[in-house]
Amino acid sequence: MSVEKVNKYKEEKANRKEWIEKQKKQAKAMRAGVIAGAVVVVVLIAGAIGLTIRNERKAYLAALPDYNASTMIVGDMAGVLTPETEAETASPEDGTQAPAEETQAPEAQG
Predict the structure, then answer these.
(1) Residues 35-75: pLDDT tens digits?
(2) Could you please report the per-residue DSSP string of 6-65?
(3) What are the Cα distances from residue 90, in Å, to 28, 50, 87, 99, 110?
(4) Spatial distance between the Cα atoms of 50 and 19, rounded to a whole number of angstroms
(5) 3-class secondary structure, 58
C-alpha cells in the first residue's frame, strides 16, 4: 500500500468509533421521529372516529321523540276546532282548564 492509503486508513480507524456513535444517534433519532409520527397519526384517526361516533349519537338522540314536550299534542288537523273550542280545550301548565270566554253581553243576562 502506498503511504497515502495507509494514512487514510489510520484516520478512518481512529475516527471509526465516533463515526459509528454518530450513525447510531442518527438511527435512534430517526426511529424516535417515526414512532412519534405514527403516534400522531393514530391519535388523529382515533379522534376522527370518536368525533364521528359523537356526532352520530347526537343525531340519533335528536331524532328520538320527546314524549314530555308539548309539541306532541295533536293540533287541529282536520279543521274541526274553532277558536272558541280551542280556548276551551287549552289548559295552562298547572293542569286546570282555562275558563271559556263569555260570548254574551253582561247586560243581556239580567
Answers:
(1) 999 999 999 999 999 999 999 999 999 998 877 756 555 66
(2) HHHHHHHHHHHHHHHHHHHHHHHHHHHHHHHHHHHHHHHHHHHHHHHHHHHHHHHHHHS-
(3) 77, 45, 5, 9, 29
(4) 46
(5) helix
